[in-house]
Design a protein that fits this description.
Cell_Envelope_Assoc, about 10% strand, YdcF family protein, Rossmann-like_a/b/a_fold, DUF218, disordered N terminus, single chain
């Protein structure tokens, strides 16, 4: 076991890694009409979006996100605002960035970004969603529900699970977030928030085991 895994037993590590892999869509990144960088605590989303812009994959991007209890101290002016500033620092021209500063959840990220694009006269046929690595599947399922006419491609920083743990610095929190996102993948279709996504039996078993072990701080009441 690597030295940074102090709060996770080896079997819990294996279970978390299984869920981590399931959350990623493994899409081939390709040229699209527009990209949307989904706001969060993870500035790596802005870094990855800027990198893909510089690769010439899209001419326009939207950063979306207001504030939440987990991001307010880090991004006091709002997630999208800080993401935009970071991307500009990385060489993305301000003219290529639209700002959506109000979204408070993933559904609003998608719906309000669509509105911002429409206001700018942009009706994309293909959209690249850039998110945290473990949020790819949920963002895909949400966008397919709310924006079904658009072809969705997902991307995130190309990090291994161990490297992502190191980048965040709190392995218990990361596993809590993996578990919480999988719960949303499972539960949100019942409320009309997302399309159904198949969850393999071994992934579901890993989820239930981690819930029993107390990785529950990001669960919602269901």
């Amino acid at each position: 076991m690597s030295g940074n895994r102090k709060a996770i037993a080896e079997d819990q590590w294996d279970q978390a890694k299984l869920i981590w892999d399931h959350h990623q869509m493994h899409h081939e990144v390709r040229a699209v009409d527009v990209a949307i960088g989904l706001g969060s605590h993870d500035l790596g989303v802005a870094t990855r979006t800027a990198e893909l812009y510089r690769s010439g994959l899209f001419p326009l991007l939207v950063f979306t996100g207001g504030n939440s209890p987990t991001t307010r101290s880090r991004f006091p002016r709002g997630e999208a605002v800080h993401f935009r500033e970071h991307a500009i620092d990385l060489g993305v021209p301000a003219s290529a960035i639209l700002l959506e500063p109000n979204a408070a959840n993933t559904g609003q990220n998608i719906a309000l970004s669509r509105d911002v694009l429409a206001a700018a006269g942009v009706t994309p046929a293909t959209v690249l969603l850039v998110s945290k690595p473990y949020m790819e599947r949920r963002s895909f399922a949400t966008a397919r529900k709310l924006w079904p006419e658009v072809d969705i491609v997902c991307a995130s920083e190309p990090l291994e699970f161990d490297d992502y743990l190191k980048s965040i610095g709190d392995e218990k929190l990361v596993v809590d977030m993996l578990v919480g996102d999988l719960q949303r993948v499972i539960e949100y279709p019942k409320f009309g928030f997302a399309i159904e996504q198949e969850v393999p039996e071994d992934v579901h078993a890993a989820y239930e085991s981690l819930v029993r072990d107390g990785f529950t701080s990001r669960l919602i009441a269901s």
